[in-house]
Each structure stands twice: as C-alpha cells, then as structure tokens.
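Design request, tokens follow.
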C-alpha cells in the first residue's frame, strides 16, 4: 500500500459494512468502483443496486454513466460541496481518518503507514458490534455468517509465523 495518497469507500447502507480502496490519484474512482462491484457480485445473491456519490470527476463521466445504465445501477448524485447530503460516507471518512491518526500517534508510528492504519480501522469496524445497529456486527449482517474474532491483536503487536520445511 505504499505511496497511496487517496482512498475511496463504498458502504452497504443495509448492514453498514464498508470497503476501502486506496489510490495513487483521485481519478481512479471508476476503476476502484469496478473492482468493488466485481468483489461484491462474486458473492451469491449480492448485487450493487444504487450508488450515491458527489458530482466529482469520475462519477459523472460517460464511462461511469454507461456502466450504471448497462448494469441497472441507480445513480444518486449529491450537490457539490455539500457533504451533509452524503452523511453516512462522510461520517465514516471522518471516523476512519480519526481512528487511523490515533493509532499512529498512540503507537508512535510514521505517517507513511496511514493506509495500513485506515485498512485496520475498516476491518475492526466491520467485525465489531455497533450500538447504532442494535449491537449487530456489519460483516455478520452482510454475509449472514457467524464470525470469529479471536485473531484480533493490538495494531503493530509482535507476531510470529511458522515456515514449514516444504515452503
């Protein structure tokens, strides 16, 4: 994840699960949406039905319009410079950045690890119960499968792995 300067998130409004994709340039939103769509739709019964976004570059391109039209994805474009209209994603962005900063500061880590800290923040969110969801776990609600979280460790904790003779 080195040298990524931007990220985009996609939120499932039903389960509150979200995905984060890192980018080198802002104009990679279309590519990342396409990756997200392919990832979600690999799962049985899952389909991207709607996309709420600002009117930024890629989201209003002909390429994006055509993909949504062909795939039957309803597009909701928000008013530019009005983040309140896309409150769910904006709050999640604020939360991701805030937690990542705290993790890096708490552990005394350099800023170039921001993407790893953001990725960890999203992972923990998706695997933790939330009072706003009546203590449901977003990943469980999304997948319908019971999760195990015994593998959680403190960010940057010492870890070991075993390499077998065959490797």
């Amino acid at each position: 994840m080195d040298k990524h300067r931007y990220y985009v998130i996609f939120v499932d409004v039903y389960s509150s699960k979200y995905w984060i994709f890192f980018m080198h340039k802002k104009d990679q939103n279309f590519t990342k949406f396409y990756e997200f769509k392919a990832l979600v739709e690999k799962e049985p019964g899952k389909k991207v039905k709607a996309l709420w976004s600002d009117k930024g570059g890629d989201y209003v391109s002909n390429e994006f319009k055509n993909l949504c039209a062909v795939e039957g994805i309803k597009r909701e474009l928000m008013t530019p410079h009005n983040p309140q209209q896309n409150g769910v994603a904006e709050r999640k962005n604020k939360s991701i950045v805030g937690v990542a900063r705290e993790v890096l500061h708490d552990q005394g880590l350099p800023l170039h690890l921001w993407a790893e800290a953001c990725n960890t923040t999203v992972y923990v969110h998706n695997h933790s119960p939330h009072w706003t969801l009546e203590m449901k776990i977003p990943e469980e609600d999304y997948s319908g499968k019971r999760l195990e979280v015994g593998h959680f460790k403190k960010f940057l904790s010492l870890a070991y792995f075993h390499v077998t003779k065959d490797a």
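Comment from the thread starter after seeing the answer: thanks! The longest strand covers residues 6-11.
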